[in-house]
Design goal:
436 residues, alpha/beta, Rossmann fold, 2 domains, six-stranded parallel beta sheet, elongated, binds 1,4-dihydronicotinamide adenine dinucleotide, binds uridine-5'-diphosphate-glucuronic acid, UDP-glucose 6-dehydrogenase activity, UDP-Glc/GDP-Man_DH_N, UDP-Glc/GDP-Man
């Protein structure tokens, strides 16, 4: 099938490659000329393991191309995916400006029946708005062209994007016509997974509910971790014991410095906004967001208490991205900690394998080190904020000799506390006091 993917960011670039790999002819469209130039040259504008190599092969094969010419992409395609950003506005609602712009452009170029599919995360009811925008643009041209609007939310994780796009655990298809259902099913033919067919509105809600539920698991564990610290219990051991129950499941029970990224914080806020709009307060989810907002401050308070003061102290940050395997720093906990540390008079040295350039641009006062050892050299305290595998393999006997004070705060419970203590560190995990 001929497919266009509009918006070639993390989701769009991955979706383009995955659909081309599945055997379709794909055109990725973006308004950003520079991004399109890079993509056509086989260079990915962000880091995602394996994606660049696959993209290069697909470009060479002619199965994939990128353009800024949306109208041309529309006329040559049967299915059009919307993968533009839907960031948070001040009131928590999703900003649909880019989506509306892309949809109206599609409407101006529509030349026959197409399926317009939202993969962007959008509030319940957006499908109907998309339909209305398209209809308006088509009517303005004095035409009557049939189209279908589908919701096909994306569940990929950054750092594992390609794997998730090629091997999804489920494909949710929200559609209102047999034709759309048949075409979407044909598009994904060959993917061995569960298909969930729903209305457009249900599909839109499934996406927000899924992200919000995962965020709830994390905040539940983060709050419980605070109690573990007061009761001499270990959150990791508690999580392990809980996770053995298949009704609970072992994933997303890792306590830490709070969830970040471009989606959990924004999608929780968007669902809360939708709830307020509909007069149905989601009290539990409200608490999930509150716990998450507090978590990095709670973590930093432990550092402040241990050091007496942050003023004049050298703090080493290990990890800046919101999770390992990506260069994405959107809503990364490090970005919450850095301004507070700087305002308190601390000096920061940081190391991250992929996130230093972006953080360096935002915070020129943060000294970016050439590696983890250089970041830790002379530090009064080390704060592990992202569990990059290379941090787990550091030579800690060397590290302890180079730090001014052997204080190690593990914001991800990524290291073995007992081992760290055996090196001589005063090691503090999240919810692990006394037991790690
Ligand atoms: N990043 C992730 O891991 C996931 C994101 N999502 C959702 O997918 C959507 C996209 O997210 P990301 O890929 O992270 O965003 P992004 O910000 O990385 O990419 C969006 C792209 O859309 C382009 N764009 C904006 N307006 C356009 C227009 N009118 N025409 C063509 N291109 C246009 C931008 O230039 C940019 O390259 C969001 O709704 C997000 O919530 C869903 C699942 C996973
Ligand atoms: O809508 C989205 O954008 C995506 O959001 C998340 O994916 P992602 O944000 O890439 O990363 P996750 O692995 O879910 O981690 C999100 C945050 O939660 C944190 N986390 C995760 C798991 C855990 O147990 N504890 C925890 O603190 C991570 O460190 C990270 O900051 C979802 O997992 C995807 O299914 C979804 O498609």
């Amino acid at each position: 099938m001929n497919v266009s993917v509009i918006g070639t960011g993390y989701v769009g670039a991955t979706t383009s490659a995955a659909l081309a790999e599945l055997g379709h002819q794909v055109i990725g469209v973006d308004v950003d000329q520079k991004k399109v130039g890079m993509l056509n040259a086989g260079r990915l504008p962000f880091y995602e393991e394996g994606l660049e190599t696959l993209m290069q092969a697909l470009l060479k094969k002619g199965a994939l191309a990128f353009t800024t010419d949306l109208a041309r992409a529309v006329t040559g395609s049967d299915i059009l995916f919307l993968t533009v950003g839907t960031p948070s506005q001040a009131d928590g609602s999703a900003n649909l400006r880019d989506l509306e712009q892309a949809v109206r452009q599609i409407g101006r170029a529509l030349n026959g029946h197409k399926i317009i599919v939202s993969k962007s995360t959008v509030p319940v009811g957006t499908g109907e708005r998309v339909k209305a925008w398209l209809q308006e643009e088509v009517t303005k041209r004095g035409l009557s062209i049939p189209f279908d609007v589908v919701s096909n939310p994306e569940f990929l994780r950054e750092g594992k994007a390609l794997h998730d796009a090629l091997h999804p655990e489920r494909i949710v298809i929200g559609c209102e016509s047999d034709k759309a259902r048949a075409m979407m099913t044909k598009l994904y033919q060959g993917m061995q997974t569960d298909f969930c067919y729903t209305t457009v509105r249900d599909a839109e809600m499934i996406k927000y509910a899924s992200n919000s539920f995962l965020a709830t698991k994390i905040s539940f564990m983060n709050e419980l971790a605070r109690l573990c610290e007061q009761t001499d219990t270990s959150i990791s051991k508690v999580a392990h014991g809980m996770g053995l129950d298949s009704r609970i499941g072992s994933q997303f029970l890792r306590a830490g410095i709070g969830y970040g990224g471009s989606c959990f914080p924004k999608d929780v806020e968007a669902l809360l906004h939708l709830a307020r709009e509909n007069g149905v307060p989601l009290r539990l989810l409200d608490a999930v967001a509150t716990v998450n907002r507090e978590q990095s401050g709670w973590f930093l308070q432990k550092v402040r208490t241990a050091l007496g003061t942050l003023s004049g102290k050298q703090i080493a940050l290990l990890g800046l991205t919101f999770k390992p395997g990506t260069d994405d720093i959107r809503e990364a906990p490090a970005l919450k900690l850095i301004p507070v540390l700087l305002a308190a008079g601390a000096q920061i040295t940081a190391y991250d394998p992929k996130g230093m350039e972006a953080v360096g641009r935002l915070h020129p006062k943060v000294r970016c080190a050439k590696d983890a050892y250089a970041a830790l050299d002379g530090a009064d305290a080390a704060l592990l904020l992202t569990e990059w595998p290379e941090f787990l393999k550091l030579d800690f006997a060397r590290v302890i000799g180079s730090m001014r004070k052997a204080l190690f705060f593990d914001g991800r419970n990524a290291l073995d506390g007992a081992k760290m203590r055996s090196y001589g560190f005063t090691y503090d995990g999240v919810g692990e006091r006394g037991t790690a």
